[in-house]
Amino acid sequence: MIRVLLADDQSLVRAGFRMILKAEPGIKVAGEADDGVEAVALARQLRPDVVLMDIRMPLLDGIEATRQVVVDETSPRVLVLTTFDLDEYVYGALRAGASGFLLKDAPEQQLVSAIRVIATGGSLFAPSVTRRLIEEFARRNGPPLRPPTLETLTAREVDVLRLVARGSTNAEIAAELVVSEHTVKTHVAHLLRKLDLRDRTQAVVVAYESGLVRPGDR
To answer: What Pfam families does the record tag this protein with (predicted)?
Structure first.
C-alpha cells in the first residue's frame, strides 16, 4: 500500500486529489496538511511513502518544507505540485530533494502514475517540462559549479549522465550507446552513488549546474 500525504493550502484541491486517489487500488491518503509547517510535522509523524507538496503555502513554502522532509534515504519522497511549468520555486524544490514535479492540471492518470513511480524509488523527469525548467534556471545561475566527485565518474558514466540530463529513458540510452538496459541501470546506480545523489532528477540538476550539459544541447 502506497501511503500519500496531501500538502496544499486549498481544501478543494486536496479534496480533488483525495477523490482521485481513493479510487486507486494500492494507494491510500494517509493525511492532509494545509500549510508547510503542518506538512513537515505530519511527514515526520505519519511517515508516508510520498508527499504531494504544493509550492506556495502559508507559514512555510514548499521548498523549505521539502528540505525539512527529505533528510536521508529513508525519508518520504516528495512530488512537487505547481500551477506554472516555469515556476521559479520548483527548481529550488528539486535542489532541496524533491523527486520530481507535476503540474496541478495534469491528467488524473498521470498523477497516479507519478505517485507509483516515485514511491518505488524512481523520479519524475518529464523532458517536456522538467528539462525546460532546469535549462531556464541554469541560464540564470552564474558560472558552472563542478563538484569534485564528478571527476570520479568513468567516461561511460559521464556519457550516461549527459543522456539522463537530456531526458533520455534507459531504453533510449541503451540504444544510443549500444548496450543493454541492465548495463544502463548499473551505470546510473554507480554514478548516483559516486555523486551522492538520491535519484535521476538530482543528477539532471548536477549535470546542468556543473556545465556538463548546457541549455540547448541535444
So the answer is: GerE, Response_reg
> CA separation (Å) from 105 to 30, 110, 132?
22, 10, 18
- Shared-domain flag, residues 11 and 79: yes
- Among 92, 124, 156, the domain boundary falls at 124
Together in a domain, 8 and 64: yes
Q: Give the chain's domain count.
A: 2
Distance (Å, whole) CA 157 – CA 169: 15
Exposed, middle or buried: residue 54 (CB in 10 Å: 0-12, 13-18, 19+)? buried
108 domain residue, yes or no? yes
Structural contact between residues 4 and 24, judged by C-beta atoms closer than 8 angstroms: no
pLDDT of residue 96: 83
Rounded to 5°, the CA angle 201-202-204 comes to 65
User: Distance between CA atoms of 27 and 91, rounded to whole angstroms?
Assistant: 27
This model's pTM is above 0.85: no
- Is 132 a domain residue? no
Strand, helix or coil at 54? strand
Q: How far is CA 41 from CA 37, 55, 84, 91, 169, in A?
A: 6, 17, 27, 23, 35
How many Cβ atoms are within 10 Å of 17's Cβ, its own excluded?
21
| Predicted pLDDT at 133 | 62
Percent of the chain whose pLDDT exceeds 70: 84
Q: d(Cα 208, Cα 85) in Å, to the nearest integer?
A: 18
Is 47 within the bounds of a domain? yes
- Does residue 130 form part of some domain? no
Residue 169, domain extent: 144-209
